[in-house]
Write a structure and sequence with these properties.
Length: about 675
């Protein structure tokens, strides 16, 4: 690497810091200032890694929909390393506020960060402390109200026109009109998860990145609002009079929203305390006494204390106590707590009769939610939330599953007939219809994630083609009528870069999952049925990962051929479109403590060209590009675009260098590049 070109690259990167590292801030174009107190449930998401003003730290919006829940766009909070706080109720970001902490983050399981239109770009944020003295924003629950021509209102802070960087700290609102989405076939998920407003309004609307803010529908009586959409993404070309905004539709995922919010609103029964002692008979006919209570968040707080007279040991139920011998109710989260001998009674000859007491506080509590976790769902805890309970749901009988988590934890098997916790397992299990499954122990630690994944088949041999059939009997994958075949290499470490190639009879998508976190490691989708999909990635990273092939069109299945092989990208050549990957085998530099990878390419003008044109397309990411001449001087440096067409001058015999940079901070990204020459000057 020439010193001149390296210094030029560093200078370009330094100039890019604000664009590359700062999140896109929400904005409203062509709107008006919101009145003070008009939208008390409006939320602003603020970065916490700097001492800048709130207006400068704000990066997304949201809305308070329950005292302890805020809804926003999933792509606002899918970066788990981002530290943020939330402001609720302010119209002006410069006013004083009480910071609200995010406790746990729940992305809708269909969310696909690489292609927002292919899933639901919605996230729910559990917050602490709950905001009980503010009104909440109701959700629209009638699909019949979402019709073309209906007036809606979008909210946001930030940039105020499409031609400059002007912004404001005052909340703005703009009225828009719903339209029919007619850009896709009816089996496209955009029909399931998104709505849009008219596309020719280039003087008003949401700005690029007006993310997470609410789209509002007025109530029928004209008093108040309902949440009908969440700002997700837009396609805009002002020169061509196009400005197409898309909003995630919470109405389409009400079941998931209701289930998540209900985790902190369980309803315990209220018998007198002396009736709380319950008798249970086990499979062997033995009768045991226990004490029934509800440890999870709900409409009142309960704390159970068990006391033994000798040796004066005291157990206080600071978190749900799920252990062998306990009896658990899968429907409401209540359970019978018993001591190690399966009873609240004398433990041995020394210990006298034990005593259990219950303290009840009649007010809502939000500290101990009872979450339900389905396959491919993922929960991330930003703050400590000890006492969270997790019930594993929607398991298929005889399928094997694994729990992914930062910390150790156990899976409790509860007999569905007796209600008794019979067995404790580590990490993996095969689902049986005779049992309920609970994940317990280290739940709720800060910076901890939990997810549930079906086990893959170790069926792929490197360098060999394999053919599989995707059928409705395969694992359901997030959306209705979507199925996934999960595969894994049957060999070990694969050095260098690797390439996954899939030729399906249906419109397939490739996803590589990280089993240790449940997160998406890489994603590919470039063809339709009978067209090749491919993905270049780090072969060593592929070891231990789960490769999933699933159908895009709902209900459509068929066979597919897949091959995983070692891959070496060829040198650049004129008039040859190449698909390339930026992986950890490429060059890298450090920016603000983050390692960013880039691929350095070169091409020599061995023809009589006076200019070269580089066409570059990032596959679901926005690469940066830096082009140097033969002396190492910078000819072009561009960023924050997905597509580039750049023409530079060239002398005969001169070598032009181009760096393609992955600013996403992700392990692997793919792009397409085509180099052409011209005898005309640029």
């Amino acid at each position: 690497m020439r010193k001149a070109s390296f210094l030029a690259l560093v200078a370009c990167i330094s100039a890019l810091h604000l664009d590359a590292d700062d999140p896109i801030r929400p904005s409203i174009v062509g709107g008006q200032d919101a009145s003070e107190g008009e939208f008390p449930w409006m939320a602003a998401f603020l970065r916490t890694e700097s001492d800048d003003s709130a207006a400068d730290r704000q990066f997304c919006g949201g809305a308070l929909i329950a005292p302890n829940w805020i809804v926003t766009a999933a792509h606002c909070v899918d970066d788990e390393s981002r530290q943020f706080e939330i402001m609720v109720g302010n119209t002006d970001l410069s006013e004083a506020y009480v910071p609200i902490k995010p406790v746990s983050i729940h992305l809708h399981p269909s969310f696909q960060s690489r292609r927002l239109s292919r899933g639901s770009d919605i996230a729910l944020i559990q917050i602490d402390p709950p905001i009980e003295n503010y009104p909440t924003l109701p959700l629209n629950r009638a699909l019949s109200r979402i019709v073309p021509g209906r007036k809606v209102t979008a909210l946001g802070w930030g940039l105020t026109d499409y031609q400059s960087n002007a912004n404001t700290s005052t909340l703005k609102q703009v009225e828009l009109t719903l339209r029919e989405i007619d850009e896709y076939e009816t089996n496209h998920p955009v029909y399931d998860y998104f709505l849009s407003t008219e596309i020719h309004q280039i003087d008003r609307g949401i700005h690029s990145g007006d993310s997470g803010g609410p789209l509002l529908l007025p109530n029928e009586d004209g008093e108040g609002w309902q949440l009908v959409g969440i700002t997700s993404y837009s396609r805009r070309s002002i020169d061509f009079n196009q400005n197409a905004p898309f909003f995630a539709s919470p109405t389409s995922v009400l079941d998931w929203i209701d289930r998540t919010l209900a985790s902190s609103d369980t309803v315990p029964e209220a018998p007198p305390q002396h009736q709380r002692v319950k008798l249970f008979t086990d499979d062997e006919g033995n009768t045991h006494a226990g004490y029934k209570h509800w440890p999870f968040a709900g409409r009142r707080s309960e704390q159970l204390s068990v006391h033994w007279r000798y040796p004066f040991l005291h157990y206080y139920n600071e978190f749900p106590f799920i252990d062998i011998g306990n009896y658990y109710d899968e429907t409401d989260g209540s359970f019978i707590i018993v001591d190690s001998d399966y009873r609240i009674s004398p433990r041995d000859n020394i210990t006298r009769a034990s005593l259990a007491t219950l303290t009840i506080e009649e007010k809502p509590t939000y500290k101990r939610p009872l979450f339900q976790l389905s396959p491919f769902e993922r929960i991330f805890f930003k703050e400590n939330a000890y006492g969270t309970g997790v019930l594993l749901q929607n398991l298929q009988a005889d399928w094997s599953y694994s729990m992914s988590t930062h910390y150790s934890g156990d899976i409790m098997l509860q007999n569905r007939t007796s209600g008794k916790i019979e067995q404790r397992l580590r990490d993996t299990f095969t689902a049986s219809p005779d049992y309920n499954y609970w994940f317990v122990d280290s739940i709720g630690r800060s910076n901890q994630y939990i997810s549930l994944l079906p086990q893959p088949e170790p069926a792929l041999t490197v360098g060999e083609s394999h053919r599989f059939e995707l059928t409705p009997y395969d694992t359901p994958y997030i959306r209705p009528q979507t199925y996934i075949k999960l595969l894994q290499l049957d060999s070990g470490y694969l050095s260098g870069e690797a390439k996954i190639t899939v030729l399906p009879e249906f419109d397939a998508e490739i996803i590589v999952l990280e089993p240790q976190t449940g997160s998406t490691f890489a994603y590919g989708d470039h063809g339709a049925e009978n067209e090749i999909d491919d993905l270049i990635l780090d072969g060593s990273y592929l070891y231990g990962k789960t490769i999933g092939i699933y159908n895009f069109d709902k209900g459509v299945t068929g066979s597919f051929e897949i091959k995983v092989e070692r891959h070496t990208s060829p040198p650049l050549a004129f008039d040859q479109e190449q698909i390339r990957g930026i992986t950890s085998f490429d060059r890298h530099f450090t920016s603000r403590g983050n390692t960013l990878y880039y691929e350095r390419l070169s091409i020599t003008n061995d023809r009589n060209y006076r200019s070269l044109t580089f066409d570059i397309h990032g596959r679901y990411f926005r690469p940066g590009i830096s082009i140097f001449d033969g002396e190492g001087e910078t000819l072009e440096f561009l960023s924050d675009q997905q597509d580039y067409e750049v023409t530079v001058p060239v002398s005969r015999g001169e070598t032009i260098i181009i760096d393609v940079i992955n600013f996403e901070g992700t392990p692997t990204e793919n792009y397409e590049i085509l180099v052409t020459g011209s005898t005309s000057a640029p």
